[in-house]
Write a structure and sequence with these properties.
- By secondary structure, the chain is mainly α.
- The chain has a domain of 33 residues.
- The longest helix has 30 residues.
- It is elongated, with a radius of gyration of 15 Å.
- The N and C termini lie far apart (30 Å).
- 0% of the residues are buried.
Length: 51
């Protein structure tokens, strides 16, 4: 049972880190609009958020 709680906490932490990294990446893309990949990546990340 204790291991189960630990795994849930680790998953929550990993998810939080992923969300932070995603927001940072989106912010960097927003700041640097010279890249022709940014709309593609934004579509991908915003699409992920909608689900």
């Amino acid at each position: 049972m204790y291991a189960n709680i630990l795994v849930k906490n680790m998953l929550f932490i990993a998810q939080t880190i992923c969300d932070c990294a995603r927001k940072m990446l989106l912010f960097l893309l927003y700041c640097d609009k010279s890249s022709h990949y940014d709309t593609l990546l934004e579509d991908y990340f915003y699409g992920e958020n909608i689900k």
